[in-house]
Fold these 4 entries.
Entry 1:
Amino acid sequence: MGTTRRDADRQASTREAGERPAGSGSAGARAAGARAAGGRAAGARAARPAGPGRARTGGRPAPRRRPSRATIVRRRIVALLVLLAVLALVVWGVVAGIRALRGVASADAVEPAPETTTGPVDPTACAPRDLQVDLTPSVGGPGEPVAFAVALVNDGEVPCLVDAGTAALVFTVTSGSDRVWSSGDCAAEPAERRLLLDAGDRAETTLAWSGGRSAPGCPDGQGSSGPGTYRVEAELGGALLEGATATFARG
């Protein structure tokens, strides 16, 4: 009988559980499912890695850290070293270019012409404009010859030749419009007398006039000149020498 009573109690408990309302069981199941889902979401958020440099504080990114003073100094030193290296490369390139151009110029240089030795240059004849002339007549007593002394000075800058012979250096005596005498009519010796005059050199020569008259070709019987005032002038190679004139009196 004891066994029958315990069986009856279990049956009664089973009937009460089966008669419990369905709504209360569903609400408990839903609450348990919600708690399980919340746990899974929290676990997923905790397992997700945070982005680089970002801290999960209210959903905003963390501010960037300012470089330290030592980092800034190191960066500036590196930049300066890079700049110096670039400048060194530029200077090296310029120097190499200049050396290359000099090498090309030296290779293309024209060989100097061989030296030529020249002998002494033959001087040319003195031009009348380069000669300074001083003509001085010297008169003796009545019936005596008149001596004409002439000095020739090379007033140019280079040596030159002058012919002081009687054929080139000619004296002519006139009295007014009367041509009295010329040393070229009856040329005496030496007919040619070539003198080399350096710049500033001086040459002298003297020619005498007996007082007789003459004509071109040296004909005889021209007579003699009388007392009076005469004028003498000198020519060189047919050109009148500037300043080579003088006046004298003959008794």
Entry 2:
Amino acid sequence: MAVTTARLSETRRSGKTSGRLGSGIVRHDTAWGYCLLNDYGGPTQILCRFEQVARAVSILAFAMMAGLWLLPNANFTAAVIGIKVALSLSLGLIALAFGSLAKRGLHREVQIDTQRGQVRMVWRNRKSAVRLRTVIGFDEIGSVFLRRSLAPFNGVHLDVRYGRKGEVITLLKGEEARLREIWRDLNVDLRQVSSPAVPPERGVQSVTRPSRRGTPPPRRAHMSSSAVGSVSQVPQTLR
């Protein structure tokens, strides 16, 4: 299920907003389906600022790590060399973590590709670069359902159960009335995908043993493969 970055980047360029679904959820229609995202006010201004802060922290941590070794008055005695190595490792890990976070982005989107039959979860940064997180095929989905969170102020979750082990992943969070609209649309899209036909079974032959009294054995019954026909898989019932 390879998905190119160029195809995913078409969400903002070619998509058009079909309207706010409430609770900060916005739907963008595209040429290949539609995209669902949480709108936190404007073009994700708050998340863009967090990404800028993360990038600044990453640069500062790298600068501090380099300063431990490159400053003119740096001390390289045996008493402090172990402390400097530990500080360098800690600052390096902090710089890598915040730098990776800023590059990946903080804006999570759910893309429903009705052409390829996929549900994609992606991360988008402030430069509109997309990084793929999860890809679930329509044929892998067992059910789509709403789940009320036990934690206060956590709203309702739109979850998908997929795979042979029945793993559950949360697509969106929000108000129940609005998520129910998305639940209906997603169920309609899943039912419209036709299941592949199962190849017909081979002809069945019944073999009988010869009679002891010399009676000739009955003629073998042949069943042609064309008589069996093609059996289609029944679509899975979604909740």
Entry 3:
Amino acid sequence: MMSSRSGKETESRTAFGCKLSEYIDRYATSRSDLASRMGTSRAYVSGLTTGTKHASARTAEDIAETLGVSPAEKIELHRAAALDAGFKLELPKDF
């Protein structure tokens, strides 16, 4: 279980959902704020964090740009999305 900024417990069932929840907390934003800044719905962002929606490479990129994450954090988002999509390859840490 992961705790959200609102104090509610949410469970992320995917690597991407866990990483996204971590970055939402780290960058002091909310799902609603992220959704608004991305031009999407809160329900979609919530689905990404809980694993009911899956992130494409474009979605991972949009989230990284919107939050202003570091290059290393952007790689971690892409890596998590790839893992959730079933990619089994071993990527170098600097990929």
Entry 4:
Amino acid sequence: MIIIPELFEILKSLSDETRYHLIKLLLRHDYCVGALAHHLGVSESAVSQHLKILRNAGIVKGDKRGYFTHYYVDRHLLKQAAKELNELADLAQGLSECHQSASSKHSCCKKTGITKDRPGEDHHQKSFMTDETNL
């Protein structure tokens, strides 16, 4: 299980487009800095800086092979981060105080008297379900 600070470091390290493409390359094949620079069209020093960030986040590891270090992705860690994001997306939303009370006594509900529908939701169906639970 990934703890939150580690997850944030992983997400921050993947938020750069070049690092994202670097990860995609490394998921297909282990590469040294020179090969990565060639495939990405950036300098070797730029690749080294990106790899440092990815290594510090724990996503990328390196194996010394002779004179060169070949880098690869820690797939297990990447899958754990993906699992955390999936769990976040699957969190069930509970009813707020506004939905639990049938009145519009809350300041957020007084302007319109109804809650704003989310995309794909039908307000009438939502209020019917709320009314049914209050019976």
